[in-house]
Amino acid sequence: MVDKLHDINEEFVETSFAIPEDCIFVEHGFFNEFGLIENAAQTCSSIVGKSYFSDHDVHGTGTKLIGFISAIKKVTVFKTPQVGKIIYTKAYLKSRFDTDGYSISTLNCDIFESDQKLLACELNLFIRELE
């Protein structure tokens, strides 16, 4: 659910995604609410997931991770975008707790189409390194 990574650091990430017609989250020509949440989760996970990879591992082959949304604290969907549109997602890390092998984090995320906000949410992610 992410095509391009435009900017990333330890506390912020911005991505984009062009919505294809054959996407599992497309209904009646629109990218549905579940697709927006999945896009938010995948964008958010890149902030935390980045720390598990070396800077030279641009293809992500050095580590295997599993992650999931552990809680959606709040979400507001303002509009769903049409097939073929490009959405831009910005996520900000609020908090992070790390142990040996896994991370739990809270992030805020906003999704836009051009200058129109489509979604705003706060969610928790759990990411674990696989052996």
Helix/strand-derived category reads mainly beta
Give the number of helices: 1
CATH topology: Thiol Ester Dehydrase, Chain A
What is the 3D shape? globular
Low-confidence stretches: none
- Total individual domains: 1
What is the straight-line distance between the termini? 25 Å
Which quaternary structure do these chains form?
Answer: single chain
Instruction: Give the percentage of residues in beta strands.
Output: over 45%
InterPro entries: HotDog_dom_sf
Summarize the structure.
The chain has a single domain, classed as Hotdog Thioesterase (Thiol Ester Dehydrase, Chain A). 14% of the residues lie in helices and 53% in strands.
Question: What do you see in this structure?
Answer:
With 131 residues, the protein is mostly beta strands. It has a single domain (4-130), classed as Roll (Thiol Ester Dehydrase, Chain A). 14% of the residues lie in helices and 53% in strands. The protein has a six-stranded antiparallel sheet, with helices on one face. A two-stranded antiparallel sheet has the order 3-4. The longest helix has 18 residues, at 33-50. It is globular. It starts with a strand and ends with a strand.
Topology:
Blueprint: E1 4-8, E2 12-18, E3 26-27, E4 30-31, H1 33-50, E5 64-77, E6 86-98, E7 102-113, E8 116-130
InterPro entries: HotDog_dom_sf
